[in-house]
Each structure stands twice: as structure tokens, then as C-alpha cells.
Amino acid sequence: MTPFREVFRRFIRETAPSERAVARVKERVLEPSTDADVSRAVLQHLPGVAPGAEGRIRARLAGRQPARSLRAWAYGGVALAAAAAGLTVVVAMPDPGLAPVQAQLASGEQRAELAPSPELALAYQGAGSLEGTRQAPRIAWESGTVHVDVQPHQGIELVVATAEAQVQVVGTAFAVTRDALGTQVDVDHGLVRVTCLDGAATMLGAEQHTTCLPTTAHGMLARARALQSQGASPELLLTTASVALERHPDPSLVRTELQLVGIEALTRLGREAEALEQAQDYLSSGGELRREGVLSLAARLAWSTGGCDSASPWLEQLAVVQPSIPNLVKLAECRATVDPDGALQALEQARAMGPDAGWDAVIQERLAQL
Amino acid sequence: MPLMEVFPCAPTLVQAAALGEPAARDRLVDACLPVVLGWCARLGGPKVDPEDAAHDVLIVMLDRLDSLRDFGSFTSWLFGITRRVLAKHRRQAWVKRWVPGFMPDAVEPGASPYQRAHLSETSRRVQAALEELPPAQREVLVLCDLEERTDLEVAELLEIPLGTVKSRLRLARQKFRTIAEQNALASLVSVTAGEGGKP
Q: Which of the two residues, B128 and A156, has the higher pLDDT score?
């Protein structure tokens, strides 16, 4: 027997597994599979999904029905709070999603279900409608003011749309007011993107505001009328009229009215030559509704800028379309040097329109001079 | 098997849904609903209505989708939501016991009409036995032994190391077997084996 063989035998003898060791390994190998068999077999008896459960959940998602939970109590409290807060509607239901939302917003109503999510608070005075989804509500605002407060980073993609503007927001508070002036957006805090439907887009930060002008000619005229009633500056009126005339070049009655707004603004600004030019455009464009008024205004403007030489054409037209005593007297003054007979004829016509205590003496004096 | 094949929500679909595409959101809900409902039914326990829980999970999912950065990890993200929602429902179930008259429509607190009508005594006992496991072991046991996911998939789903899954699974099986034997549920083993496995 070689020494090597003896060494191997000794090695085999010393490394042979004991019965206890074999049993331990066997236990470790077999035990997990046994446990697994038990758990797999027993777990088969766990209750599964109820028939129709998926359909019911889909219906609840579509119908915005809340889960049966403590929230039901929260709804009642929030609804009472909303009622107590007047027109402010805040809902504590954290359930934005795919479910469609639709409601009419009108002053004097409080409807807790209007606010699509807890991250959105609405307060409004006016009229509009709410549609879209709880995740992406869309407010079509017709008139008045809607104040919106959206908590940031909640995934609410709110759009407030008016006839003039589309306001998109992710996390801010702002107010949208629509009236005759257009659509005004006032940002309390946060950041909003305002896209006016005339193409202008701007980002508004805290305490900034912008106004989207009406997109139609009659809307711009309504804005001009509203500005006039508010005593707006002639500069603003002129800007409104100029923008409207540029955007709506097609001849129309509304356009001629806008021209008149511009003429009046230029007159108030002392820009008489430009006003006279605009008046000429008005009359040449066929504006008939206020022809007499524009002729009278043009005559005064012409008189102040160029005296009789400028005013005579306008006074001659006025004598035909609006033969009043002051116009005829002024016409006689202008005719006196170049056409005395014509001046006499104008004064006679003016006297025939009397008697007028205020003008009779003036007419008599002019006749005496002739 | 890759996790996304087990739960086929392609990252592109998740991304489209996160960007707010209504059709994508609908498809995502369709894909997630059966899986989430299964998780809620198996992990919710006897006090939780799986339909309520699944509904809330999907609502949270849609609400938070835009905060998801890695669309490829959507499934584990969704499981995390499910886990949190179930925990909330469990807490609420506990609170409900102390709110007088809160559940006038429930004969047995936490049990849905279906559960009340259709759960067999055996099912109730199995559910109760599972409830005795720690939540972490319960999750691994259900995912591996009931949903037949590999330990690798479960590690990915739970975002824990593979070794942790294996150790939790081993402990869970041991403990569940003990509980089953104590509750005379071990006899189900031979019956089920004779029926040839899972339904």
C-alpha cells in the first residue's frame, strides 16, 4: 500500500458525513418544499375577486362615486361649509380622474359637486359651465368673474376658456373676468399661461394681469362703449378703435361706429388734423348712420385748423343735409368774401328757420354787414 | 419572465397616460384593474372591501401618474400605492368599529355583500390565517405562492433584494404552515393536491 493510498483512505474516513449531518441536510432540502406545498394548497382557498367587480369599479370611476368609507361624512361637512361660504365651493374629495364632470355655474347656486377635486376651489359670480374630467376640468366662462385656486403639483390641468382667451394653469390662483371690455386675467399667485384667441400668448406671474380683447368687431365696439361709459382716457379709446379697425377691415356698420370712436378720441386728444382725416374716411366710406354728426364735427375741426378755406366744403354739405341756424350763419360768414349773394341766401334761409331769440340778432347784424 | 410580460403595461402607454391622453388613461385603467383588484382581494384581509380599495388605488394612480419619473418601474410603483391604500383601509376599518352607526349597511364590518354571501367558512379561516403573518411576509407569500411569480419578479415588484425575498418567503411558509396546522387547515393540502393544483 502506497503512502498516498493510506492518506486518501484517512481523508475519506475523516470527511465522511455523519448520520446526523445527512439528516440535517435532508431536512433543510425537503422542508421548504413541504412548506411551499402547504402554503400553495391552503392559499387556493383565499377568497378571490367577486364576479362583476371590475365592471362595478369602472362604473364608479366613470360616475365619480366615492368608495364606501369615512369620506362620506367628509362630504356632508364640506357641503355644509360650502353652503356657509356663499359662492365659494371647495370639495375635500381627493378623487381627480377620468370621470367626466359637467355642471352649469350660475350666480346664487352652491353645488359641492362642482369642484372636481380637493386641489381645486372655485368662487364665481356670473355664468358659465364646467365640463371635461376631474383630472382636466374645463370651465367655459361666459360672463362675470370666476376665481380659481389650484394647488400646485397635483396634476390638475385646468383650462378656463372664454370667447377671447384660454387660460391654462398648473398650480396657482387667479381670476378670470369676462365683460364688455373683454377677458381680464388677474393672477394672485403662481404662474399661468394666457393665450388670447387673437394669437397673443403671455405668461403671467403673481399680481400681474392681462386682458384679451374681444375677437369680433361688435365685441370691440361693446368694449369701446363700455370704456366710454367708464370715462376711459382718449388714448385707450383710440387704441381700442385702432386695433378693431385694423382687425376688421371689411366695411360694416359696426366698423363705421368704431371709426367714430376713433374720431372722437382724436378730437379729445387735440389731434384735429388726424381727426379730420378720419372724418373724411368715414364720410367717403359711406357711413350714413351718423353722417350729419360727422359732417358737423368735420366742419368744426376744419374751421379750427384752416378757417373758412377748410371748413367751407363741410359747411356746404351740412347746409344740405342738416340746415340748422348755426351752420347756415357760419356758412354765410365763409361765403361773404367770395360769394356775397350766396352768403345772403344762407342768412335768409337761417332767418326763415326762426324766430330764434339767440340767433335773430346775429343774423340781423350779418345781413346789415352784407 | 420579465415583469412587464406578467403585467403588460408598456412604458409608452404609461407615459402617454401620464401626459394626460384620455385614451391612454382608459387603457391603463383596463390593464391595471384586474391586477389591482387581485392584490386587494388577497392582501386586504377580511376587514377590507377589495372593490373599495381597488377603486381608491386607481384613483390615486391617476392622480399621481404625472409624478412618476421612471415609467419602466410602473408596476412596483403601483404595488406601492396598493400597499398604502390597503393600509389606509385597514386603519379605517379599525376606526369604523368606533364610529357609532357608521356602517348601517354592513352586517359584518368590512365584509362586502359578496363576501358575506359567498365566502365559505374555509375561505374565512384561510384569510384569517394569512392575516396572522407580518405584512412583509404576507406580501411575498401571496405573490410567490398564489400569483406564482418568481422570486426575481417579486424582488423587482417590491424593490427589495432577491435574498430578502427568499428569506421572507422561507419564513412566511414556515410560519403559515404552523398557523395552518394550528387551525386545522393542513387537511386542505391533500384535497387540493388531489384536485391537481390551482383553479
A: B128
| Domains of chain B: total | 2
What pLDDT shows up at residue A29?
A: 58
* In a shared domain, residues B86 and B159: no
% of residues, chain A, pLDDT over 70: 78
B82 and B143: one domain? no
Task: Report the pLDDT value the prediction gives residue A106, as an integer from 0 to 100.
Answer: 62
Range of the domain at B64: 3-96
Distance from CA of A298 to the nearest CA of B (A): 59
Task: Tell me the pLDDT of chain A averaged across its residues.
Answer: 75
**d(C-alpha B2, C-alpha B4), whole Å:** 5
pTM for this entry: 0.40
CATH number at residue B42: 1.10.1740.10
**Residue in the structure block whose three cell numbers are 385597514:** B90
Q: Is A134 within 8 Å of A116 (Cβ atoms)?
A: yes
Chain A nearest C-alpha distance from B53 (Å): 8
Q: Check B102 against A58: CB less than 8 A apart.
A: no
- Which residues in chain B are contacts of A30 at CB distance < 8 A? none
| Average pLDDT estimate for A105-110 | 53
In the CATH scheme, what is the code of domain A217-369? 1.25.40.10
Interchain contact A183–B (C-beta under 8 A): no
Nearest CA among A152, A153, A108, A102 for reference residue A129: A102
For this complex, say whether ipTM is above 0.90.
no
Quick check: A370 and A344 in contact, CB under 8 A?
yes
Q: Which residue on chain B is closest to A170 by alpha carbon?
A: B66
* Phi, psi at A84, each rounded to 5°: -70, -25
Using a CB–CB cutoff of 8 Å, tell me whether A99 touches chain B. Answer: no
Q: In the listed set B65, B96, B127, which residue is the last one of a domain according to the structure?
A: B96
pLDDT at B102: 43
When pLDDT is cut at 50, 70 and 90, the band that residue A166 belongs to is confident
In this structure, what CATH number is given to the domain that contains residue B139? 1.10.10.10
- In the listed set B64, B96, B128, which residue is the last one of a domain according to the structure? B96
B33: in domain: yes
Task: Measure B92 CA to nearest chain A CA, in Å.
Answer: 7
Closest to B38 (Cβ–Cβ): which among A35, A44, A49? Answer: A49
Min Cα distance B57 → chain A (Å) is: 10
Interface test with A, best of B49, B56, B59 (most A CBs within 10 A): B59
- pLDDT digit string, tens, across residues B7-26: 556 777 888 888 777 778 88
Of A165, A128, A167, A171, nearest to A149 by C-alpha is: A171
In-domain check, residue B199 = no
Pick the CATH number of A99-212 from 2.60.120.1440, 3.40.1650.10, 3.40.50.150, 3.40.190.10: 2.60.120.1440
> How far apart (Å, rounded) are the C-alpha atoms in residues A326 and A303?
13
Mean of per-residue pLDDT scores for chain B: 76
User: Same domain, yes or no, for B91 and B120?
Assistant: no
Contact between B63 and A40 using a beta-carbon 8 Å cutoff: no
Whose CA is closest to B25, among A133, A54, A158? A133
